[in-house]
Design a protein that fits this description.
Blueprint (H helix, E strand, L loop, with lengths): L1 H4 L2 H15 L4 H29 L2 E4 L10 E4 L1 H28 L6 H20 L3 H19 L5 H32 L4 H7 L5 H19 L8 H4 L5 H26 L6 H20 L4 H21 L3 H32 L10 H4 L1 H15 L5 H18 L7 H31 L16 E3 L5 E3 L6 H19 L1 H16 L1 H8 L6
Antiparallel strand pairs: 1-2, 3-4
Helix pairs in contact: 2-3, 2-5, 3-4, 3-5, 4-5, 4-11, 4-14, 4-19, 5-6, 6-7, 6-11, 7-9, 8-21, 9-11, 11-13, 11-14, 12-13, 12-18, 13-14, 13-18, 14-16, 14-17, 14-19, 14-20, 16-18, 16-19, 17-18
Length: 528
C-alpha cells in the first residue's frame, strides 16, 4: 500500500497542473483543483511519514525495472519529514494566494498562469525529496526551476524581469555544475543510483572523490544560498508577489540543504570536508546577518536573514554526528515554517500599510493588533527567544557542537567548532535586534513620530466631476489572514511538540548515520 502512494506525491501535482491549464478560463475551478491536489498530497505525505517511521523506508522501482536500471524512488524518514512540511507550507501559501487573487482580481497572481506553474513547482520539489538517483534529483531541480522562472516574473514589471534574469542565470550555472558532476560521477563509477554510488565512490582514489565531492557541493551550495554563493538571493526574491516570495524563501533553498545532507551522509562518507562546511556555515551566518543590519525594507532584511540562517544548517551538517543531524533536521523544519510565515505577514503589512520600508511605516500596532501579533511571534521565533522552536533548534546545534568537542569526536578542530558556535550566538542576537527594530518602527512607533507620514488611503481620494469625494478603501481578505495565522500556529506547534519532533528527527538522523542501511533498502540482495 505504501509503495502505491509514493509516486502520487509527484503524479498528482503534475496531473493537477495539466487540469488547471485546461481550465484556464474557469478561475474557481482552477483554484479548487490546486487546493484539492495539495490537500491530497499533504494527507498522503502524512500517511507515508507514519508508515516509514513504524515499518521502515519505502522503495518503488518505476516500470518494474530494478535498480540501478530503472528510476528508483526512496522515502525514508528524512524524505517523509520534508514531504509533510513542504506540502503543508505549499497548501497554506496557495490558500493565501487564492485570497489575494480574489481581492485583487488576480492582478498579482493571474490564475491561468499561476496555478499550473505553482503545481509544477510543487511536483519538482516533491520529486527532489524522493529521488533515488542523481539524475532524477537533477530532473526534480529542473522542474521546480522552470516553474520558478515563470512565478518570479509574474506581472512582467521591469524590476521583476531584472531580478528574474539574475535568478535564471544563477540557476543555470548551478545546473551546469550539477549536470557536469553527474557526468563525471557516471564516468568514474558507471552509475547514477545514489545507493550504488555510496559503495562505488568509496572505491575511488581520495583525490578523485574530493573533486567530485566539491563539484556537487558547489552546485548544491548555489541552490541553498550558502556564502559566498548567496549573492543572487537578496536581489531576486523581494520583487516577486508575496506568495511566490514566501515559497521561494521558505522552501527552495531547503531543497539544496536536503541535497547537501544526502551528499554528506550517503554519497561521500569517505571524503571528509567537515572543516570546510564548518567554515562556510560560520561565514554564511555572519555575512548574511550583517547584510540584514543595513536594510530598511523588511523584504530585503528577511532575505538576508534567510541566507544567515542557512549557515546554522550547514554547521549542523558539518558536525557529522547523529545529534548534529538531529538538530539540523529540526531546524530545517522550523526555518521553513517561520520564514514562510514572516514573508506572508510581510505581504499583509504591505497590503495594510502600503509599504514595506520602516521609512514609510508607523502606527500599525494600533491600526491592526492582529497583524502585530502575527509578525511578532515568528520574528521572536527566528530571533531565538525561549521557548520557541528557534531557540530549541539553535540550542540543539550548539549542544551538538559542544558535546563533540567534549568527547573528542568533533569533525573539525575544537577551536573552530567553538568559533562557529560563537558566530551562531551572535547571529541570533543580531537577528533579534534587526527584527525588533523593524517591529518597533513599523508597529510601536506612532504615526505622528514619522516625519511626512501620509496614510496610503489618502492617495486614493479622488475628486469626482460633480464635486463629490470618492474614497477607495483597502481590505485584507479573510483567507490571507487565516492562512498566515494557520502557519504561525504551526510554528507554535513546533515548540509545543518539540519533544516528539526531536525524537522523530533523531530517528531520521540515526538512519542517515549508517549509509549501508540506505544501500540495503534499495538493494536488499546486495549491490551488483
Amino acid at each position: 500500500m505504501t509503495a502505491v502512494l509514493v509516486p502520487l506525491v509527484v503524479l498528482l501535482p503534475m496531473l493537477g497542473a495539466a487540469t488547471a491549464l485546461i481550465l484556464g478560463r474557469h478561475r474557481r475551478a482552477q483554484m479548487a483543483v490546486g487546493v484539492s491536489v495539495l490537500a491530497a498530497v499533504t494527507v498522503i505525505a502524512a500517511v507515508l511519514l507514519v508508515a516509514v517511521d513504524t515499518t521502515g523506508p519505502a522503495v518503488v522501482y518505476l516500470g518494474a525495472w530494478d535498480a540501478p536500471w530503472g528510476i528508483t524512488l526512496v522515502v525514508d524518514r528524512l524524505s517523509a519529514i520534508m514531504l509533510v512540511i513542504s506540502a503543508i507550507m505549499l497548501l497554506v501559501v496557495l490558500v493565501y494566494s487564492v485570497g489575494q487573487g480574489i481581492a485583487d482580481q488576480h492582478r498579482e497572481t493571474p490564475v491561468s498562469i499561476f496555478h499550473p506553474s505553482y503545481l509544477i513547482l510543487s511536483a519538482g520539489v516533491f520529486n527532489a525529496f524522493i529521488a533515488g538517483d542523481l539524475f532524477n534529483l537533477y530532473v526534480g531541480f529542473e522542474i521546480l526551476l522552470a516553474a520558478s522562472y515563470v512565478l518570479l516574473t509574474l506581472g512582467g514589471t521591469g524590476e521583476r524581469i531584472r531580478s528574474g534574469v539574475t535568478y535564471i542565470i544563477t540557476s543555470l550555472v548551478s545546473s551546469l555544475f550539477f549536470l557536469s558532476a553527474i557526468a563525471l560521477i557516471y564516468g568514474a563509477t558507471g552509475t547514477a543510483n545514489i545507493a550504488q554510488l555510496s559503495v562505488r565512490l568509496a572505491e575511488l582514489p581520495q583525490d578523485v572523490q574530493l573533486i567530485l565531492h566539491l563539484l556537487l557541493l558547489m552546485a548544491f551550495g548555489i541552490k541553498a544560498a550558502v556564502f559566498p554563493l548567496s549573492f543572487w538571493l537578496p536581489d531576486s526574491y523581494p520583487t516577486a508577489p508575496a506568495p511566490v516570495t514566501a515559497v521561494f524563501a521558505g522552501l527552495l533553498t531547503k531543497v539544496g540543504v536536503y541535497a547537501i545532507i544526502r551528499t554528506e551522509t550517503v554519497l561521500f562518507v569517505e571524503s571528509d570536508v567537515s572543516t570546510l562546511l564548518l567554515v562556510i556555515g560560520g561565514l554564511t551566518m555572519l555575512i548574511g546577518i550583517l547584510g540584514a543590519l543595513t536594510q530598511a525594507d523588511i523584504k530585503r532584511l528577511l532575505s538576508f536573514t534567510l541566507v544567515s540562517h542557512i549557515g546554522y544548517m550547514v554547521f549542523g551538517i558539518g558536525l557529522s554526528s547523529v545529534i548534529g543531524l538531529t538538530a539540523t533536521i529540526y531546524y530545517v523544519v522550523h526555518h521553513i515554517t517561520v520564514q514562510t510565515a514572516l514573508f506572508l505577514t510581510t505581504g499583509l503589512i504591505e497590503r495594510f500599510g502600503g509599504a514595506t520600508s520602516i521609512t514609510r511605516l508607523a502606527g500599525l500596532l494600533k491600526a491592526s493588533p492582529l497583524l502585530a501579533v502575527l509578525f511578532f511571534i515568528p520574528a521572536m521565533n527566528l530571533g531565538g527567544i525561549p521557548p520557541f522552536s528557534g531557540f530549541l533548534g539553535k540550542a540543539g546545534l550548539f549542544l551538538a557542537g559542544a558535546q563533540g568537542t567534549a568527547e573528542g569526536g568533533a569533525s573539525g578542530p575544537d577551536w573552530l567548532v567553538w568559533v562557529v558556535i560563537a558566530a551562531g550566538a551572535a547571529t541570533s542576537l543580531i537577528t533579534l535586534y534587526a527584527l525588533t527594530r523593524f517591529w518597533n518602527m513599523a508597529f510601536w512607533r506612532g504615526r505622528d513620530e514619522l516625519e511626512g507620514y501620509e496614510s496610503v488611503l489618502l492617495g486614493s481620494v479622488l475628486e469626482a466631476p460633480e464635486g463629490a469625494t470618492v474614497t477607495a478603501t483597502r481590505t485584507t481578505p479573510v483567507l490571507m489572514v487565516v492562512a498566515t495565522a494557520s502557519l504561525v500556529a504551526v510554528t507554535v506547534c513546533l515548540t509545543v511538540f518539540a519533544g516528539p519532533l526531536f525524537d522523530l528527527a533523531g530517528r531520521a538522523a540515526e538512519g542517515l548515520s549508517d549509509p549501508s542501511a540506505y544501500v540495503s533498502i534499495v538493494f536488499p540482495e546486495g549491490v551488483r
